Fold these 3 entries.
Entry 1:
Amino acid sequence: MNSYELILIFDPNQGEEKIGAFLAKVEEKIKHLGGAIDKVEKWGTRRLSSMIKKAKALTQGHYVLVRFKSPAGAPAELRSYLKVSEHVVRYFVSRAVVMPVPPVRRGAPGMATAPVTAAVDIGEIKGKPLGEPQ
């Protein structure tokens, strides 16, 4: 199963009840397609950066981020479901990228750790001897 992120923009004039009800339908659709919801973040109402053809009069949108895991074919099904929805102004489904966390180097308590990389003179990189005229 792959990790995905779904960003939904709703018309804020619909109200919290309608947005919550449609969001529950989207979660149910993801579960029906064999996925599992990891996290739902409601970002709230924000100003739109540009005009959207589907709703030209809107200047604000209610943003919601849904992180989920599902099989590879589920996002296409989800896109087709959201495409015909009248509640969603705009949506975006993408595969989530998991960034590896670099290991933390720790020394003895109170001791400064040595730097991971040392400064290098450009001449050393190019293979030229240092301190000699060219």
Entry 2:
Amino acid sequence: MSQPRSDADRMRRRELYDAASGGGGPRLLPWTSPEGKPCYLSTDGRGYISTLADSIETVQLSMGQELLDYAREATAPGAKTLSATEYRWLACRLTEALADALRVADSRGQRIPDQEEAAEDA
């Protein structure tokens, strides 16, 4: 389980969110087109689709954390041995969760202003 966030953590996350949603170009969304191509949104970070994307990213990261917890329990010394099919299922889900987490990191990283840009704006 994750630890509760302190007020300082919440403030820092809000500052990063505000900086990231400052219109630094199109936002990479946490889903793809039916053809598997990336989807982007031109936004100020405050609209319905942007909020939906934030919610989906939160769910993806939470599910990834739960899956990681399960994987740690399943592979701990003394844990019941899973079948090959169960290990394959776990590996597939972990792969999906990692892909989701990397996409979220990429999207958020693209929205954080460069240090030089931030200094110029100040």
Entry 3:
Amino acid sequence: MAGTNSGYQVRQTISVTDIKCSSCEKLITDGLMKLDGVYEVKPDHRTGKVVVSYDLLKTQLVTLEEKLDALGYPLLSGFWVRCKRDLDHFKERNARDNMSHAPHCCNKPPLQR
């Protein structure tokens, strides 16, 4: 749940539909803050966007999107929005892979003869 920053913090903007009022914003905030690794949630019913700060080691963008959908706020589904979402998923996978990658042997100092 919300807490101290311990890992790789990411800030992501998610475009959703059906946010109509401040009570919708509170429902989204309460729902996403229950997820492990979520630090901050800022929904805006005027723009239809939710800005989320979370720990990439503890949760993923897909998890946040699924939770929003389960709360009754589906993702915006226009062509360019889907393209951006696919790019965001790729960047997140790449960052997670880079964090778990062990250095190559060429990073070792040369052997002394």
